[in-house]
UniProtKB/TrEMBL annotation:
<keyword id="KW-0805">Transcription regulation</keyword>
<dbReference type="InterPro" id="IPR013325">
    <property type="entry name" value="RNA_pol_sigma_r2"/>
</dbReference>
<dbReference type="InterPro" id="IPR014284">
    <property type="entry name" value="RNA_pol_sigma-70_dom"/>
</dbReference>
<keyword id="KW-0804">Transcription</keyword>
<dbReference type="InterPro" id="IPR013249">
    <property type="entry name" value="RNA_pol_sigma70_r4_t2"/>
</dbReference>
<dbReference type="InterPro" id="IPR046531">
    <property type="entry name" value="DUF6596"/>
</dbReference>
<keyword id="KW-0731">Sigma factor</keyword>
<keyword id="KW-0175">Coiled coil</keyword>
<dbReference type="InterPro" id="IPR036388">
    <property type="entry name" value="WH-like_DNA-bd_sf"/>
</dbReference>
<feature type="domain" description="RNA polymerase sigma factor 70 region 4 type 2">
    <location>
        <begin position="121"/>
        <end position="169"/>
    </location>
</feature>
<dbReference type="Pfam" id="PF08281">
    <property type="entry name" value="Sigma70_r4_2"/>
</dbReference>
<protein>
    <submittedName>
        <fullName>RNA polymerase sigma factor</fullName>
    </submittedName>
</protein>
<dbReference type="Pfam" id="PF20239">
    <property type="entry name" value="DUF6596"/>
</dbReference>
<feature type="domain" description="RNA polymerase sigma-70 region 2">
    <location>
        <begin position="19"/>
        <end position="80"/>
    </location>
</feature>
<dbReference type="InterPro" id="IPR013324">
    <property type="entry name" value="RNA_pol_sigma_r3/r4-like"/>
</dbReference>
<dbReference type="InterPro" id="IPR007627">
    <property type="entry name" value="RNA_pol_sigma70_r2"/>
</dbReference>
<feature type="domain" description="DUF6596">
    <location>
        <begin position="187"/>
        <end position="287"/>
    </location>
</feature>
Length: 425
């Protein structure tokens, strides 16, 4: 293999194995920042040694062995570390993997460590942006540059978020352990929120020139699948995976050849990914088999499943979708859920019915800068023949969105209203 091939191999191994290595180290050194530095030192060692020795049979275990040895050295050097860390070092010295590269022993499952790392990265003590950046860095294996490019912010901003997040966790002495039973629901909700935020930014980018950023969707799906393996008894984890799989199945149909958006009811359903769709429906069945009491993500997945099972737009069961949105509104009431419920009601019982609900949201403070409110209202106004009002709403929606592709779509719909044509949806 050439040096270039070796470098590519190291990068690929790092993307796959770094979460496990960092998780294992964090359990030993009790500091996420230090754990990541030790893991990166191991990667540098791989870049230096593998061109001569070749890629080892078990590269992930090689990285873990190398990183653990460096952790031992660090513990030995630092006399100011707490007694507990010294005990950990002595314990490590007594293990076979500390004395030599016993790769088979080091390849033992690390699911507990990974799950702890998931909960630490998404700890509620951190700001949402910090949780997202730290999760993508530690669990997604993304570089600061890749995260910055994905979210259209500067590298310096992302780096600062990550540094502050590590410092916050360290200063708060957040333990590297599973949450207590009375905290588990809140902590799990924080994890699921982060994963879905990452997915949504990829599925419908809030800013920039592209309607979608598929790489972010893939990262979120991978994190969700890992989480489902680590927490197989958690209904909402499978609900979130189901929701993301079903939504991701539509990705190819959501843009045309020019990269412009194609709305759901206008999509060519023959382009939907049937493998992802089946996986999503299976995940939903698994969630419902664990507990028939549906949480927020399970309800949203059930709504997505209604679209997924419809062979044509006309076959969509909007009455059922309306009922599911009503259940979601009762479980997690919010203006955005009400807005979506208004759309469902309009499709099930006519635009005038939906418009009445949406009109009640016009003065909602939290939706003042939310572009989908005037977009939805414009659509309903157009359907009831109030084209001048609809045009104004589409124009306002175009001003509010930061996505260039979406702006063009909304302006085109405004222009159609001006010409006396009710835009289709």
């Amino acid at each position: 293999m050439t040096d270039t091939d070796i470098h590519r191999a190291v990068e690929a191994v790092w993307r796959i194995e770094s979460p496990k290595v960092i998780a294992g180290l964090a359990r030993l050194v009790r500091d996420i920042g230090v754990a990541e530095e030790l893991a990166q030192d191991a990667m540098v060692a791989a870049l230096e040694q593998w061109p001569e020795s070749g890629v080892p049979r078990n590269p992930g275990a090689w990285l873990m062995t190398t990183a653990k040895r460096r952790a031992i050295d660090l513990i030995r050097r630092n006399e100011r570390l707490e007694r507990k860390q010294a005990e950990i070092a002595r314990d490590l010295e007594s293990r076979p993997d500390a004395a030599g590269p016993d790769l088979d022993a080091l390849d033992a499952p690390v699911s507990d460590d990974l799950l702890r790392l998931v909960f630490i990265s998404c700890h509620p003590i951190l700001a949402t942006e910090a949780r997202v950046a730290l999760t993508l860095r530690l669990l997604g294996g993304l570089t600061t540059k890749e995260i910055a490019r994905a979210f259209l912010v500067s590298e310096a901003t992302v780096a600062q978020r990550i540094v502050r997040a590590k410092r916050t966790l360290s200063d708060a002495k957040v333990p590297f352990e599973m949450p207590a039973s009375d905290e588990l629901a809140e902590r799990l909700a924080s994890v699921l929120e982060v994963v879905y935020l990452i997915f949504n930014e990829g599925y419908a980018a809030t800013a920039g020139d592209d309607w979608m950023r598929p790489a972010l969707c893939e990262d979120a799906l991978r994190l969700g699948r890992i989480l489902a393996e680590l927490a197989p008894a958690e209904t909402e984890v499978h609900g979130l995976v189901a929701l993301m799989e079903i939504q991701a199945s539509r990705s190819r149909a959501r843009v045309d050849r020019n990269g412009d958006p194609v709305l759901l009811l206008e999509q060519d359903r023959g382009r939907w990914d049937q493998v992802l769709l089946r996986r999503g429906l299976a995940a939903l069945e698994r969630a419902e088999s664990i507990d028939d009491r549906r949480g927020s993500y399970c309800l949203q997945a059930a709504i997505a499943a209604c679209h997924g099972r419809a062979r044509t737009a006309e076959e969509t069961d909007w009455v059922r979708i309306s009922a599911l949105y009503t259940a979601l509104a009762q479980l997690t009431p919010s203006p955005i859920v009400e807005l979506n419920r208004g759309v469902a009601l309009s499709m099930a019982f006519g635009p005038a019915t939906g418009l009445r609900l949406v009109d009640a949201l016009v003065d909602e403070p939290s939706l003042k800068r939310y572009h989908l409110l005037p977009s939805v209202r414009g659509d309903l106004l157009a359907k009831v023949g109030r084209l001048d009002e609809a045009r104004a709403e589409f124009e306002r929606a175009a001003e509010l969105t930061g996505n260039v592709r979406e702006q063009a779509l909304l302006k085109a719909r405004a222009a159609a209203c001006e010409q006396g044509l009710a835009p289709q949806r």
